[in-house]
Every structure is written in C-alpha cells, then in structure tokens.
Write a structure and sequence with these properties.
Blueprint (H helix, E strand, L loop, with lengths): L5 H6 L7 E4 L3 E5 L7 E7 L14 H17 L7 E4 L15 E5 L10
Antiparallel strand pairs: 1-2, 2-3, 3-5, 4-5
Length: 116
C-alpha cells in the first residue's frame, strides 16, 4: 500500500487546512502557496495518483470536480472576471503531490501562464 499523501491526511483531518468545500466524495481547500488571490485545490477523497490512473468508472467523480470548481469560482467572486483550472500529470508537468487535484486559480489577471 502507498504512503498517504498530504492531501489524504488533510481529507482525514490529520493536517489542518482551510477547507472551503467537503462532501462524501470531494474536498476543496486553499493552497498554502497561492499563485493568485484565489487558489483552491479540489481533490477526490479517494486516492487517485494521477490523471493516468483515472478509470472509466471515475467519470462522474471527475465531472463533479469541475462542477464544484465552477461553483467555487462563483462563491469566490471570480466567475465573471475569469479563472484558470489546471491539472498537472506527473513530474515533468509539475505535479508535486501524487493525489489527483484540480487547481482553481483567479482573482487577478493571469496572463498566458501562471508562475510564482
């Protein structure tokens, strides 16, 4: 069995986080190193390491992540001005935590790319 990720520990309540959404399948919390005024990570509660590990049976769960991102963008007041949704897959793409997560980033002009 793989070691629990920091995200698994947040979901389990073992590590504190600023949680903005939680249900039986998905948890969303503020990134501790935000790239913009709004930077929320949306993660499935079940451990899926990367996009490559998504199974066809996960399609509804993955779709719900995007719907929650849309709703959080409205809640955070960035839906109309614009926001970016980002998923990194594996090390060359910059994935640091190997628990699938969707970045919701906004609250300022982002330009063609987002960086620190």
């Amino acid at each position: 069995m793989n070691e629990p990720t920091v995200f698994s520990k947040i979901i389990a309540g073992e590590i504190p986080a600023d949680i903005v959404y939680r249900d039986e399948e998905i948890t969303a919390f503020r990134d501790i190193q935000p790239l913009a005024p709004v930077h929320i990570l949306i993660v499935p509660n079940q451990a899926i390491a990367t996009v490559n590990d998504i199974e066809d049976a996960d399609a509804e769960l993955i779709g719900r992540m995007w719907c929650i991102a849309r709703d959080l963008a409205k809640q955070e007041g960035i839906a109309e001005s614009g926001y970016r949704l980002v998923v990194n897959c594996n090390a060359d793409a910059g994935q640091e935590v190997f628990h699938l997560h969707l970045h919701l980033i906004g609250g300022r002009k982002l330009g063609s790319s987002v960086s620190r």
